[in-house]
């Protein structure tokens, strides 16, 4: 552990430091101006040697977005209750596991930057036990408030409606969650999953994996790229990502599914071959847009969906 820490420290020191100002310059080049909501998927180490670490990345991202959203997924809350076992449920998932809490750490493969965002004051987290998002800024509550167990990616619909942007910071489209929202609208079958909460095990829905999502790149019309330090940063409009996903799936219903034999993508593929695909309307978003109209017309109706102000660990 200590050796790994020392190794990482030396490796980092080998790279020229990247400052918050460098990062902000890159964000500006990508066309960000602080007026637009932004969802970010990130790798801190991709920057090589970021001065101030995850905290200064977040400062830069918050300055260049009106609302900042990141996934705060907690895959380890997924459980496999014996009575609900499905053939597509991986054998490695246990029957019991830790329940989701407002301060549950994000999974390691989601990253240190969203974890840092959770630990900073002022961030909100949605309530989904496995696929929560963390957000800060002007419309954080609104973006998070639409999420339900049945529709975990609903926050992306709000970002799309607000003409938000997606930023891939040192990662590629395999981390681009907005593709999953496009899949939902395109009518891709979803898999049942179960997750542990403090109130007990609940049912939710889960998509195919994202290993083949890089195939979307050539279909995007708004993609811009910049290099900062050692990292490639890419930005696109959420609406572009969603539209490209829908187009690809409309043309080839199995587009963007991986071909690994043991992957749940093969169960989705089988369902498509059996039942076809049936495009969906986002009723949650339509409801939200309707509620918003009422609020804009002067109603004092409160939001019904819970979001949690992040409670710090003791
Ligand atoms: C998996 C993933 C997070 C790994 O990226 P990573 O850069 O290795 O990991 P993190 O972003 O958590 O950053 C931690 C690493 O940054 C490095 N680091 C720490 N401080 C640093 C600094 N100041 N400057 C540069 N690197 C630093 C460390 O090496 C650390 O690794 P360690 O935990 O082994 O010590 C990334 O590849 C990824 O996929 N991110 C997107 C996830 C996502 O949004 N998915 C959506 C669901 S599909
Ligand atoms: Zn797969």
| Coarse structural class | alpha+beta
Which whole number gives the mean pLDDT? 90
Query: Order of strands across the biggest sheet?
Result: 9-10-6-1-2-5-4-11
If helices are DSSP runs of H or I spanning 4 or more residues, what is the number of helices? 10
Specify the overall morphology.
globular
How would you sum up the major sheet?
A: 8 strands, mixed
End-to-end distance:
24 Å
Strand content of the residues, in percent?
15-25%
Helix content, binned percent: 25-40%
Chemical compounds bound to the protein: coenzyme A, zinc ion
Query: What is the gyration radius calculated from CA atoms?
Result: 20 Å
- Low-confidence parts, pLDDT < 50 over ≥5 residues? none
Q: How many beta-strand elements? A: 11
Number of domains: 1
Helix and strand element order? HHEHEEHEEHHEHEEEEHHHE
Describe the structure.
The chain is α+β, with helices and mostly antiparallel strands. The chain has one domain. Helix content is 33%, strand content 17%. It is built from ten helices and eleven strands. The strands form two sheets. It has an eight-stranded mixed sheet, with helices on both faces. Strands 3-7-8 form a three-stranded antiparallel sheet, with no helix packed on it. Strand 1 (38-42), helix 3 (53-63) and strand 2 (67-71) form a beta-alpha-beta unit. Helix 2 (20-29) runs parallel beside helix 3, helix 3 crosses helix 4 and helix 7 (178-186) crosses helix 8. The longest helix is centred in the last third of the chain and has 14 residues, at 238-251. The model has no long low-confidence stretch (mean pLDDT 90).
């Amino acid at each position: 552990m200590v050796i790994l820490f020392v190794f990482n420290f030396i490796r980092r020191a080998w790279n020229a430091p990247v400052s918050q100002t460098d990062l902000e310059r890159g964000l500006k080049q990508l066309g960000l101006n602080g007026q637009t909501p932004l969802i970010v998927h990130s790798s801190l180490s991709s920057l090589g040697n970021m001065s101030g670490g995850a905290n200064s990345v977040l400062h830069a991202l918050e300055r260049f977005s009106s609302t900042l959203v990141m996934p705060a997924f907690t895959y380890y809350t997924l459980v496999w209750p014996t009575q609900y076992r499905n053939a597509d449920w991986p054998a490695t998932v246990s029957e019991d596991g830790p329940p989701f809490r407002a301060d549950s750490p994000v999974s390691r493969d989601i990253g240190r930057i969203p974890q840092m965002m959770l630990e900073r004051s002022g961030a909100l987290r949605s309530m989904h036990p496995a696929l929560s998002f963390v957000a800060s800024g002007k419309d954080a509550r609104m973006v998070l408030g639409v999420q339900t167990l049945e529709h975990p990616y609903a926050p992306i619909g709000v970002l799309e409606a607000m003409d938000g942007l997606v930023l891939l910071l040192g990662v590629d489209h395999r981390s681009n969650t907005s593709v999953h929202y496009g899949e939902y609208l395109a009518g891709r079958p979803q898999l049942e999953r179960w997750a542990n909460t403090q109130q007990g095990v609940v049912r939710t829905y889960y998509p195919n994996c994202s290993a083949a999502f890089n195939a979307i790149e050539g279909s995007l019309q708004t993609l811009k790229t910049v290099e900062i330090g050692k990292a490639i940063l890419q930005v696109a409009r959420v609406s572009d990502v969603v539209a490209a996903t829908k187009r690809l799936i409309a043309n080839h219903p199995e587009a963007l599914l991986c071909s690994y034999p043991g992957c749940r993508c093969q169960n989705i593929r089988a369902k498509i071959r059996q039942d076809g695909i049936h495009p969906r309307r986002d009723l949650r978003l339509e409801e939200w847009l309707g509620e918003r109209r009422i609020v804009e017309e002067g109603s004092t109706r409160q939001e019904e969906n819970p979001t949690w102000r992040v409670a710090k660990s003791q």
